[in-house]
Amino acid sequence: MLRVVTLSTLFPDATRPNFGVFVERQTLGLALEPDTEVTVIAPVGLPPWPLRRGRHAALAGLPEREGWRGLDVHRPRFLALPATQGRFHAGLLTRTLTPLLDRLSFDVIDASFFFPDGPAAIALGRRYSVPVSIKARGADIHHWGHAPATAAQVRAAGRAADGLLAVSESMKADMVAIGLSRERISVHRTGIDADRFRPTDRAAAKVSFGLSGPTVLSMGALIPRKGHEIVVAAVATLPGVTLLIAGEGPDRAALIAQARRLGVADRVRLLGSVPHAELPALIAAADVMALASSSEGLANAWVEALACGTPIVIPAAGGARELVTTRAAGRIVAREPHAFAAAIAELLDERPAPEAVAAAAAPFSWERNARELRTHLARLVARG
């Protein structure tokens, strides 16, 4: 029996059902592997109590432990001091987790996000004399691995880990660039629920969403890094094209104002946060998925769109070139409106066959993801 503690600050809860669903799905797959026992620790970072209002108050109300889709999930609270740029997050997280892990029996710690999970996992691994694996997904390296307050902690954790995983070859290169050993990093790709994300009747899907005519979908949090404003500007130059934006965040008001300013408020629909279970039908209704992220590891949204037969337009961010390998899969373009508009128009004109688009997602499987993760973790334990 392989006893795994999966540590992830990126994990869904009742207040954030879409938060880290890819970590949830990876963990569900691991727990289904033979002779594998998984305990999930999904810490919740909270500011000091006088500041716990709104979303923080909702997070504070989550159960400390619950059954979550068949997983045993602990949700300990740790102090996330504001205005410190994350400098103390890992230390405070370690202090919070120690009493909990003192009560558990386990063979390995699987940290599914690099910061603050990684440095905390290293400290805990030393305390309990168990190996530690840390996985890099994107912002955990691109932001925390370069931010002055946390970069040294990220590098130290990466050098001390018994095993390292990256979501793409590009992510692996980014880890090497901050001083981690290439030989110790394995690429561990995401998966896809092929029975849910698959080509369907696009015309029927459009009708279900009250759509007609060419449709572009952009998915992701409404934050500057995702570049939704670039897609809005691109679609504004394409008459008759509707843009759907699935996601929520602080840029919502700015995007609404931009659409009004460009005279396309009637063609840009902000859908808010869409439950993950509803994404296949939404993606199936779109002719193109366009996401102008400034940085990614290998976005699940890209893979999900392709699996549904919807070509993608994205910049050369993260593992983009590892995924868009055929013209049917989409286009990799400069991160600016004119380039996005040209690529979208080209795909709307060509209309690649959904089956040809979906072929680009064929290598991605949650079964393979789980099998490779268990093999990786078991190997670390076997080394002693």
The average pLDDT score comes to 96
CATH topology of the largest domain: Rossmann fold
Structural class based on helices, strands and sheet pairing: alpha/beta
What's the CATH H-level homologous superfamily of the largest domain?
Answer: Glycogen Phosphorylase B
CATH top level label of the largest domain: Alpha Beta
Residues in helix, %? 25-40%
Shape: globular
Radius of gyration from the alpha-carbon trace, in angstroms: 21 Å
**Could you give a short account of the major beta sheet?**
8 strands, mixed
Which CATH architecture of the largest domain is right? 3-Layer(aba) Sandwich
Count of individual beta strands: 16
As for the number of domains, it is: 2
Number of helices: 16
Given as residue ranges, the uncertain stretches (5+ residues, pLDDT < 50) are: none
Strand arrangement, largest sheet?
Answer: 4-5-2-1-7-8-9-10
Q: Quaternary status of these chains? A: single chain
Strand content: 15-25%
Distance between the termini: 15 Å
